[in-house]
Amino acid sequence: MVPILINIILIDFFYQLHIGVLVHAIILMTGAIYLLMQCRTSLVNFFFRTLPATLSNRNTYLLRAVVILLPLILLATYTYPDKHPQFTGKYKVSHLMVNGIPVAAHSTKDSVLTTVYMDWQDDFVLEFNHYNNRYIGTYRYDPATDSLHVQWRYPRAFKTPFSSSLKKGATKGDYLFVGRMGEDILEMKLEKYQDVK
Questions:
Q1: Between vectors from CA 148 to CA 146 and to CA 151, what angle results, nearest 5°?
Q2: Number of Cα atoms under 13 Å in the Cβ half of residue 129
Q3: 181 forms bridges with which residues in the sheet?
Q4: Helix, strand or coil, per DSSP, at residue 192
Q5: What's the average model confidence in pLDDT over 33-56?
Q6: Which of 54, 56, 130, 162 has its CA 20 to 30 A from that of 110?
Q7: Minimum mean pLDDT range among 15-19, 35-39, 57-61, 80-84
Q8: At CA 47, angle to CA 46 and CA 49, rounded to 5?
Q9: What is the DSSP string of 123-181?
Q10: H or E element: which one contains 60?
Q11: How far is it, in rounded angstroms, from Cα 175 to Cα 188?
Q12: Nearest CA to 93 among 110, 76, 70, 75?
């Protein structure tokens, strides 16, 4: 309970959530610590002082080593979800051409591709000038050909094939994107938004 509450407090603090949310998490944390302190002696004895009498001295050290080493082994075998960190980020779409014709959004009501997201677990999002107008899928990247293929999952009925190639742009993090969505040929420049520090 305490590690979860610490995580919640840190998220509330670093994501600058409303002060009421942070105060609520701190109150819950204080209550949890108070309840744990009521049983402090029993908890310390259980976790740090007493071991079953049937264990020998050698088995005692072995048990303590397993408790420490098992989480380290699990961490070492963990697969990090950011499979393509060079792509992970939010990109502004510029110089968009559909079938050789330049296209740009002139108002907030135009449903023109304006933003591309490439995220952990190979998530791929095309945003059309508003967060309510998105296609969401999972991409497969082939480094040998610099090609990208997307399998869409939202909206559920949208199954149009999408494939493209990515070439590095002049600026670090930018890419030149040439691809096909259904019958349309797309060309664009993806300009990576810089992380806010």
A1: 165
A2: 12
A3: 162, 184
A4: strand
A5: 77
A6: 162
A7: 57-61
A8: 70
A9: EEEEE-SSTTSEEEEEEEEETTTTEEEEEEEESTT----EEEEEEE-SSTT-EEEEEEE
A10: helix 57-76
A11: 9
A12: 110
> pLDDT higher for 51 or 24?
24
Closest CA to 164 of 110, 82, 79, 91: 91
pLDDT in tens, 101-116: 999 887 777 789 999 9
CA distances from 91 to 25, 40, 156 (A): 34, 51, 24
Distance CA 127, CA 112 (A): 8
Please enumerate in sequence order all residues whose Cβ is within 8 A of that of 159, keeping only pairs 6 or more positions apart, or say none.
152
pLDDT confidence tier of residue 53, bands split at 50, 70 and 90: low
Chain centre to alpha carbon of residue 191: 20
Gyration radius from the chain CA atoms: 26
Range in 18-22, 33-37, 58-62 the model is least confident about: 58-62
